[in-house]
Design a protein that fits this description.
By secondary structure, the protein is mainly α. Helices cover 47% and strands 9% of the residues. It is elongated.
Length: 332
Amino acid sequence: MIKKLLIGAVVLLLAAGVIGWQRYQDFLQQTLDFEPDKRVFVLEKGWSARRLGAELRDAGILKDTFWFDLYLRLSGQSSRLQAGEYQLESGLTPPAMVALFINGQVTQYRFTIIEGWDFRRLRAEIAATDKLLHTIEALSDEDIMRELDAEGLHPEGQFLPDTYSFPKGMTDIALLKKAHQALQQTLDSEWQSRAGNIPLKNAYEALILASIIEKETAVADERKKIAGVFSLRLQKDMKLQTDPTVIYGIGEAYDGNIRRRDLQTDTPYNTYTRKGLPPTPIAMAGRESIHAAVHPDEGPELFFVSRGDGTHQFSVTVQEHNAAVKKYQLKK
């Protein structure tokens, strides 16, 4: 009798084991079905397998936490989960979802630095980006550059215009570091391949000139020509006489209009009163402007004036330039 009971118990245990294993396999192969089809889920740092299962259940993504917890424990993956914000889609299997959590395939956001922004504008745009973790709001410009291991370097122009991907919670200083490193790599590469006999002493001067080119034109075909004008002026020891540097020197007091007195008021950035390049860049220069600065056209033009449609009229002599100013600016 006892033998029969033992045999029966063993059979029941085996049957329960088979049924349990089958349910476990069914759980692993099922596809998750939830509404809406795409769901943002945040996995916080330090969550246990049980806590993760409970959060997924409460979010309506997972129905059975027992098998999910068992899977994480049996597979040894509970310690490999990576915190972050994830985009989950209906139709995933539980193992596929866990693979996302382990591989750290977090949702990526984008931040774009626009050509021509100055550092003040860049700081404002970063402050308005709520997906970043803000750490620089109380820091001075000098403190920020120190955090970037660039102590003593002026921040203007030091961040490459581009679109940068980042996960939610990334620090603003980490984003700036990416943009600063991208600028340094681009500038170094362009400087190494620069044209011969350009009137620039180093890569930093190339960046300064590139920032002026960036502010002078948005027309791709004009960049090298404008670079050629400024390069020739530098070679001839002529003043650059470019309005964007004057505007930068005025700073926050600039009201949208540049007046004769502004051109006559000396600042370190007034290229009407001082020869040579200004002391720092005046904006963030894009790749094309950096390339133009070190590969200028070699034409004879020394002057250019806006036609009022975004393009410029180039002139060789001051007489030609004055005529162009009269035609396009004075409208006489």
